[in-house]
Amino acid sequence: MKSHFAVSRIVIYVAILCTICGLSCKRKAPAPGEATKPQPVPEKVAVKPAPTEANAVAPSVTVDTGPNSVAVAVNGANITEGEVNKLLDMQLAGMAERAPNRSPESMEQYKKMLRQQTVEAMIVSKLLDEKVKEANIVVKEEEANKRMEQIAATQRTSVEDFKKKLEGYGQNFDALKEQVRKGLAYQKLIEAQTAGKINVTEADANNYYSENLKRFETPEQVRASHILIKPDPNAADPNDAKAKAKATIQDLLAKIKGGADFAELAKAHSACPSGANGGDLDFKPRGQWEPTFEKVAFEMQPGQLSDIVETSYGYHIIKVTDRKAASITPFAQVKDQLISQLKQRKLNEFAQQYIQSLRASAKIVYPPGKEPKAERPAFPAPAPRQ
Q: Within a domain: residue 169?
């Protein structure tokens, strides 16, 4: 996906879009030795609270929360509670799918927490809508279709299958597409505002590279295969189960030393999902495997076979098949990516300032009892990464 897509993430439509896309993003728990590398945490750009026209309200005031009641008025245009709840429900649908065992009470509490964030983002959207209309910005049907294809691709599915998934979660594909269309219009608006104002040179990228060299380091890695035999967890006697598992792994080790094929034995006997791939765990840096397993693997050279290794998972035979020395990705290899990402950062910063200016000049009125808290949530601004 192109780097400028991040601009539209500053508004609720793409935030909700990411939530909906997350419906099908289930992650399986890693098999022994198959944990993934942690990703860099994005930096954040704080959004300072803007002044509002809200005044304190006495506790005795009755607050109308019906779907047609006003949640907030922006330059004379009302945003209703029904509109707010519609977007909240879209976010909650994703939350419910990822955490199906949460109680209705906890989901209602979560909804209350999200409400202010959603109202704030809808205010921003309303202000941007005004500017899009003033600038006569139009998003063509083919542009919206292309973006929907990109979104579906991130879920490794077709647009039609993605549509079915959304409908399965009670979501409307056409409504989502309209939100994406809005995001594209906001993107065009911000890009028009920044035309000729954002420039990142190769020297800028080189400076960032030099100051963040650790980000481009690749640690030493080992590629290992293993066979795992687990003691029977349902055995009446745990000690007897361990003894049987150890006897099995000893027999397998003897067969391998006698010339049997390691990968075939892994496919036939290993209790790890990697057994289907002949026991291959791929390349891993330190910190990805259980310490006992890792210590043995990193002490071995390609082609070497371990003795029996016991971990909390059971008994292993480890075979190291390859190694990679620690290295640093050359600047030339990441130069273009860094320039693009640094431009994106500046674009996001400009968007923050632009939105601040729109809010500062807008007339934003909250009905009694619906005033926001002192602080509004910040929008994330991603940092350049390898």
A: yes
Q: From CA 375, how far away is CA 120, in angstroms rounded?
A: 11
| Residues facing residue 218 across a β-bridge | 327
- Residue 115 forms part of a structural domain: yes
Q: What is the pLDDT of residue 25?
A: 30
Per-residue model confidence (pLDDT) at position 61: 56
Residues of the chain predicted below pLDDT 50? 1-60, 376-386
Say which DSSP state 36 is in. P
Residues in Cβ contact with 139 at an 8 Å cutoff, skipping those fewer than 6 apart: 181, 184, 185, 188
Which residues partner with 228 through β-bridges? Answer: 316
| Number of folded domains that form the chain | 2
Question: H helices within the chain, ranges in order?
Answer: 12-21, 81-98, 104-134, 141-154, 159-168, 173-194, 202-211, 238-257, 262-269, 291-299, 331-361
Same domain for 308 and 347: no
Q: Is residue 62 part of a domain?
A: yes
Domain membership of residue 287 as a residue range: 220-325
Q: What is the pLDDT of residues 84-138, one digit of tens each?
A: 888 887 777 766 666 677 787 877 777 778 888 889 989 999 999 999 999 999 9
Residues 319 and 353 in one domain: no
Q: How far is CA 383 from the centre of its chain?
A: 14
Residues 128 and 229 in one domain: no
Ramachandran angles phi, psi of 35, nearest 5°: -70, 150
Q: How far apart are CA 190 and CA 132, in angstroms?
A: 10
15-59: per-residue pLDDT in tens? Answer: 433 333 332 233 333 333 333 333 332 333 333 344 444 444 444
Rounded CA-CA distance 97/102 in Å is: 10
CATH number at residue 270: 3.10.50.40
